[in-house]
Each structure stands twice: as C-alpha cells, then as structure tokens.
Amino acid sequence: MLSFRGISVAFLIFAYIYASEAQIFYSVPMWGSSGSNCGCNSGSSCGCNSGSSCGCSSGCNSGCNNNNGGVTVISLDSGNSNCGCNSGSSCGCNSGSSCGCNSGSSCGCSSGCNSGCNNNNGGVVTVISLDDGNSNFLVCTLLGAVFAYDPVVETKYGTIVGSNVVVPSGQVIEFFTGIPFAKPPVGDLRFEKPVPPDPWETPLVAKSFGEKCIQFLPVPGVNTNASENCLFLNIARPSNRSSDPQGYPVLVWIYGGGFTGGSSQLYHNSDANERIVSRGIIFVSLNYRLGPLGFFATKDPFVPGNYGLWDQVQALKFLKEVIQPFGGNPEKITISGASAGGASVSWLTYSEVARGLFQKVIPMCGCSHANWAQNFEGNEKSSLDLLEKTNCSQHQNPKECLKTKSLEEITSAAKTESMMLYDSVNLLSWSPNFDRDLIQSTNFSEINENIDYLYTINSQEDIPFSLNMGHLSKSALHYPVQCENASFFGKSEFEVGIRFLLSENGAFGSESPRAIQKVIDFYENQTVQYSHDQFLQSYVQLFSDLHFNVPLLRETKAKGYGNNVYIYVHDYVTLKNKNVFLDGSGHCMDVSYICGNFFGTEDLSDPTYVKIKDQVLEIIENFVKNGIPKTEEISFNKVEKRKIPFVHIGSESLSKENLWTERLRFWDNIMKEFGFDWVSGKWTGTEAM
Q1: For the residues of 302-346, what is the DSSP string, one character each?
Q2: What pLDDT score does 177 carry?
Q3: Which of 61, 164, 288, 522 is most buried, taking the most CB atoms under 10 A from its CB?
Q4: Rounded CA separation 550/663 (Å)
Q5: DSSP designation for 275
C-alpha cells in the first residue's frame, strides 16, 4: 500500500482519473486514532445498511459498498502510532463516549477510545478502492473522505475544533481561527492588563477569524468587523505528525500598522499558510489592542500604558500552555512581525515578564530603538488630548472616567486622518513606553539573554513616509514631499526641509544651526550613486537612517554581545514596483515573500523575485528550526562588537561586512558633540538652552 504524507488536491484528482481504469490502493493523511475502529463500533451502521459501516472494521463491511459509489475506507489509524487517541483518552470525547454519541453508537467513536480525534497522531485514512460501484463516482467523494473529520485538539482550556484548508498548492493544512487567549478587555478590563480566559465546557468551533481590534487608522476594508472583544489568535499546522518527538517549531506573527491599525487576519492568509506551514512550521498570528485602547498612558503610575504589548505577552503565555496538543514544541517558539510588529517583538526582548516565552526573534523593518517606537512624549500628548476631548481631564481618576465612555466617544476623540504625524520626524501618535512594569528599566540596557535574532530591513524603508504617492496628507510642506513636487526637489528644497524638520521641539538647542549644517553636508556628499535625483534620494536616505537604519544598527550591536544576531538587507524591486522618483526597496517590501500579495507588491512573473522569495523563505525556515539563517548558496556571519556583517538580498545575494558604518558613526558623533540624539529624540548630555 502506498502512503502519501503530503497529499494535495491535485493528487486526489489525478488519483480519481487514474483509478477509473484500475483499482489501486491509496493512503491520504488524516490525524486518526490508533487501535480504534475508525469512527464506529463493531456492527454499527454509520448511516449505512447493516453490515456496511462506512469506515469501520471488525464485523462490518467497511466502506458501504452496497451500491454506494465504491470508496472504501478501512481505518483511521496509523499502524503502530499512538495517534493521540489512546484508549480512554478524551480528544474531544470523554472516555467511553463517542464524540457526542452514546457508547456503542455510530457517530464517530468506539467504546473506550475516541477515534477521529487528532492529538499529534499522524494517522491516515486508508482508501482501498476507487471503483464506481453502481453509481457515478465524483471527485468530491474522495475529497469528502479527506475532510470527513474536522481536526480536534484537547487543551487545558477545552476542546478546539478547526478546519481542513486547501492552500494554493493544493496541500491540505489544519487551521484553527478565532481562539480567545484572554477575556474580552471591556468594561472594567478596558485600559487594564489582559486576563486569561475561562475554560470552556462545550467544544470551541474555531473556523472563523475573531473580530479585529478597534482601528484608529482609516484603511478601506480593514475597519469593518472590529470590536473591543478582539483578543484572539489563530493556529495553522501541518496535517501530519512531526517526525520530531518534541513537535514542530512555531512561528508567531505580530502585525504592524503604526500601533493604530492592522489585524492578524490581514497577514494570516492562504499564501502565508502555504509558505510557512508546508515547511514543517506551525504558524500562529494574534491580535492586540491599538491606539488609545492599547497604549493610553500618562505620567500617573496607575496609567502605565503598554496594554497592547501586555496582550502580546498574554497570547504567548496562552500559546505556551496549549501549543503541545497542537503538535508544537513550546521550547522552540520564534516571534516575528513587521514595522510596528517588528518593534513589538523587539520590545518584548527587554521584558522580564516575557522571558522564556520565546527563543528566537525576527524583527522585520522596525525595532524598539526607533524614535517612533518609543515616543512617550507624543504618546502622552495624545493621551492628554483624549482626556480633554472626552471631558475626563479634570476627573479625580481619569482612567476610570474613560472606562465609562462609549466606544464611539473614544474612537471619535482619538481618530486622525492617518497614523502619521506630518511635518514631524516623530512619526506616530501612539507607541509603547518604558512603563517600569512590563519594561522594568528606563533604557535598553537590560536585555534577555540566550535569544537568537534575525533582523531584516529594506534599503530605503522611509520611501512611503518621505514621499506622498497619494496615500498621505496633502497639507504637509516638507514631510512627506508631495508627489507633484518630487521632480523639482533640488538642493534648496533639500536644505529647507532638513532645517525645518531637524529643529523640531528645540532639538540641539542653541547649537541647532551648526548641528543641522553638519547633517546637510554629510548627506549632500554621500558616495552612493543613485540613478534618480541626488537630493530627493539623499533626503529619503536621511529619514530612512533616522527612523530605521541607525536604530537597527545600534540595537544589533547592543544585542550582539551576548546573543547570536544576524542581519539581511533587502534591496530588490520588481519592474512592477519601481518608484518613478526613487531607487531602493521601500518599507516592508520583503514581507510579501511570506504573506503573498497583501501589499500588492508580489510579482510571480519575475523570475528574480521568485528566486529571492524562495531564498528568504529558506532563510527563515532554517532560522526558525535551527537558529542559523542560511541557504545552500548564502551564509550569514554574526554581528560582533566591532563590526556588523550582513547579507545583501538582491538580484545577487551576497554576504558582506560592516553595514552602514559611516552613517552609524556620524550620528553617534553628532549625539556626543551636541548632547542630543535625533535617532531616539532624546537629550543625552548638554541641556537645551
């Protein structure tokens, strides 16, 4: 008998066509039960005539071949494997019961063993005959055999029932969506740390995404079906059992969106499931609170903020408790995210509370050292504005006052036209902060050890923020540059824009003119050769450095002392995605290799793009599984105290040394000379005069 562990729908269709001419034996993957009778007791009927019990053994003619179309299913077990459904185990059924049926009935379980369940069992449905019988045989008959049983997992919180899902390649995976990892953060739980969920008594049907968290960023199609009751996660796993007795490694995705928008389901699509799960990795995504509901904070110790980060921690705690029954290894968890999601996973590496919840981290196009990811001053201003607009500013307990406000009152008071602050180097209104609770220190000095890191960044991350291609405010004068002005952006516009932006909030104090002139001179004389206008390109490069590049360089150097830290720089743009004004790969463009065409940047007709996609996925797979990013052609070197090696991902992917050292040295020297660090937005020495 042939056994196929990675069967696809394409194979099933082929099997039918081929088997029309000959009777052949096939096995297709399911997570069945060892030693049980495939869902029925001896002699039971399962909806068939007496003696033909639709997939039962011993005492009944399996398959209902009584003029029924001829698909014979012998068993749901996998030979000598445990199948996760040992005699007396539950798997969604109590010992001796039969998945909602009484002992001895034919609804899916045999007395004393609950077959049809799927607790890491690697079982198979064995199809013995594909003959037509006396009726027309349809492909859907065979597909019905594959999907005869929904995947079921028994956790400490209760039973969870998922779905069998076909991904674009035709492979079948098991998908569990809308799993609550915390109580709804409503009423008295609004503006509080998340609370673990209560166990559920009836099986949780996890076949649809939970609602998104309330959005404070207007994005068409994203703001629908949003609710304060939004703390859900999703789990996608392979349909067969891992060959590793410890289980599959786990990759957790945390979405971006400027801490004001986004949801897990935007990224957890069929492309992501196929590209990650097909590589033997369980893929998990989660929601967290956004905007003021997630990051409202003042200097009051009772309003520390960071509720969105606490949501992420609670999701990871919950996952650690339940991932083993899903076939995952709780000691092999990698957390990743892009933009604000990248900054989030970076923040968690500084939290004692999160210690031990993950072993590897992949921050993509964002990190906690960026000023937009730790803008407490801007966050506090937004919080005080919210209190003022909701008439809570003079209340004895402002947080309790906000709890009494309707959701509409809060959202209308907090929403802006965009997540961005315009004509300001401080990008965001809401962000995490050093709360002395989740993050105990007041700086980035306390780092959790024994964590492996893979940082990813694009060569010109700031393109969509520095240049308005129609999706940003038209009222901005200097940042972003308006598209209609881009063709005329020369030396004068370059210098005026920098002088305006870098003098914000009294930066550099009385030394501001001299400090800013040094910045202008440095970026006007960059040695990089661009095919587009030098001044516009240098302008975008400056803000890519301030918002993304230099923060990443500082963070990786700091973490490289006691951890394994690797970096790749993505620098490929397809013809479809080329910017008419700028060179370089923009913000989060490498995320499409994981999540498909969500950003509209995927171009599978470009062979170089496809090659890079496969390289990036192989790099991520090896890092998640072994902690070492590599492919057969590409090797990474670790960040060291005095050098920052990296891999350049482009039309040619190469290992290189010393990433952007001149730019890092320049901004470090500016900080030392003038006592102000524009990268973090903080005074470090001389006070403003």
Answers
A1: T----HHHHHHHHHHHHHHHHTTTTTEEEEEEEEEEETHHHHHHH
A2: 98
A3: 288
A4: 7
A5: I
Question: Which amino acid belongs to residue 640?
Answer: E
Are 528 and 676 within one domain? yes
Domain termination site, one of 418, 448, 478: 448
Same domain, 281 and 183: yes
132 and 162, same domain (yes or no): no
Tokens of 404: 């009494």
Task: Find, among 121, 92, 122, 119, the residue nearest to 108 by Cα.
Answer: 92
User: Is there a single domain that holds both residue 360 and residue 426?
Assistant: yes
d(Cα 273, Cα 276) in Å, to the nearest integer?
A: 5
Residue 48 lies in domain: 1-149
CATH code of 305's domain: 3.40.50.1820
Tell me: do 140 and 279 sit in the same domain.
Answer: no
Edge-first strand listing for the sheet containing 328-338: 163-166, 172-180, 232-238, 282-286, 248-254, 328-338, 360-364, 452-458, 564-570, 646-649, 654-656
| Same domain as 526, residue 387 | no
In the block, which residue shows the tokens 């993505």? Answer: 570
Picking from 149, 183, 199, the residue at the C-terminal end of a domain is: 149
Tell me what pLDDT residue 98 has.
33
Nearest Cα to Cα of residue 234 among 338, 139, 160:
160
Q: DSSP letters of 430-488? A: ------SSSS-SSSS----SS-EEEEEEETTTTHHHHEESSSS-SS-SSSSEEHHHHTT
CA distances from 413 to 7, 291, 409 (A): 52, 11, 6
Same domain (yes/no): 233, 126 = no
Q: Is the pTM of this model over 0.70?
A: yes
Q: Can you read off the two tokens belonging to residue 249? A: 């490694």
Q: What is the count of structural domains for the chain?
A: 3
pLDDT for 299-335, tens place per residue? 888 899 999 999 999 999 999 999 999 999 999 999 9
d(CA 333, CA 561): 22
Q: Clarify whether residues 369 and 270 are in a common domain.
A: yes
Strand partners, 682: 677
In the DSSP assignment, the letter for residue 533 is -
Distance CA 139, CA 69 (A): 11
Q: Give the three-class secondary structure for 423.
A: coil
DSSP state letters, 152-216: EEEETTEEEE-EEEE-TTSBEEEEEEEEE-S----GGGTTS---PPPP-SSPEE-BSPPPBPPP-
By the 10 Å C-beta count (0-12 exposed, 13-18 middle, 19+ buried), 437 is classed as middle
Q: Residue 212 has which token pair?
A: 């998104």
- Asked if 589 and 573 touch (Cβ cutoff 8 Å), the reply is yes
Closest CA to 334 of 353, 319, 351, 352: 319
Residues of the chain with pLDDT under 50: 1-147, 417, 686-689
The CB density around residue 48, as the number of other CB atoms within 10 Å, is 22
pLDDT for 420 equals 57
- What the block records as the tokens of 118 is 């799927």
Domain assignment present for residue 485? The answer is: yes
> Is 25 a domain residue?
yes
Q: How far apart are CA 168 and CA 481, in angstroms?
A: 40
Burial of 435 (0-12, 13-18, 19+ CB in 10 A): buried
